[in-house]
Amino acid sequence: MEDYEEPGPEIVKRFMYVNRRPPHGTIYALECLEVVLITAAFEQFESLVFIDDGVYQLKKDQDTTGIGTKNFSKTYRALDDYDVERIYVEKESLEARGLTADDLIIQPEILTTDELREIMAQQDVVISS
Amino acid sequence: MSTMLHIINKSPTETNSLDTCFRLAKAGGAILLIEDGVYAALAKADHAKKITDRMNDYTFYILGPDVAARGLNDIPLIEGITVVDYEGFVDLVTEHDVSQSWM
User: What pTM value is reported for the model?
Assistant: First the structure.
C-alpha cells in the first residue's frame, strides 16, 4: 500500500492563472488579479500568464479617470512584493497586437508559444479567466 | 434611407462583432469604437487591416476616454479615425437616425 500523504500546508501545488481578456470591458481581469493576490498568502507555486487579449492588461500608462473605474493596472507592479515572481507573456500574442515588452507596466518573462506549452503541461491546477 | 451609427464595444480579437458589422452595415454609415472596441484601432496590430480596408466605406470614430483607460494614448492608432469625447458620442447619436449597438 502506498504511503498516505497527510494533506496540509506542506503540500505545494503548481497553480497557473491564465489571462485571456482585456482589462476594463469586463470584470475578469480584476477578479483574476484579486484571486492571485489572495492565494499568494498560501505560498503555493504560482504563475501568472497573459495570452491573447490578456496582454492588454499589462499595457503601461492606463488612465481610467475618464471612464470612472479603478485603475488596477498599477497593482501588477505589487505582485513582486507578494512573491508572485513567475509572470509570463506570450510573445506571439504581444506581437500580433503590435506591442513590445517596452509597452508593459512590468517586466514579465516573454515566452514563445512552444515554451509556454511546456510550462503549462507541468501545472497541477490551471485557472483561466 | 435612414443614417445609421454602428457602435462596437468588443475587441476584434475576442469576438466577431466588428466583422459582422462590416458584413451588414451599408457603406456611408458611421462606426464608433468604444470600450474594448478601441483595440481595433491599433495601427501596428495584425488586425489593423480590418479597418484600413474599410476606411472608404465608413466614417470611423473612437471614444477618447476608453483609449486613455487602456493606455493607448502613446501608441499609434489608425489615421483617419476621429477621436470624440462623451459629448461627441451624444452628438453622433443625435446626428444619426438610428444607433445600432453590436453587443
Answer: 0.93
CATH number of the domain bearing residue B59:
3.40.1260.10
Instruction: List the grid coordinates of A26.
Output: 469586463
Q: In this structure, what DSSP letter does residue A129 have?
A: -
**CB within 8 Å: B71 and A62:** yes
Query: A66 vs B69: CB contact, 8 Å cut-off?
Result: yes
Query: A22 with B70: CB under 8 angstroms?
Result: yes
B75 vs A103: CB contact, 8 Å cut-off?
yes
User: ipTM of the assembly?
Assistant: 0.94
- Asked whether residue A1 is domain-assigned, the answer is no
Closest Cβ opposite residue B35 in set A25, A53, A66: A25
Q: Could you tell me if residue A75 is inside a domain?
A: yes
Provide block-wise average pLDDT over 10 residues at a time, chain A (129 residues): 60 93 96 93 91 98 96 95 93 98 97 98 95
What is the tally of structural domains in chain B? 1
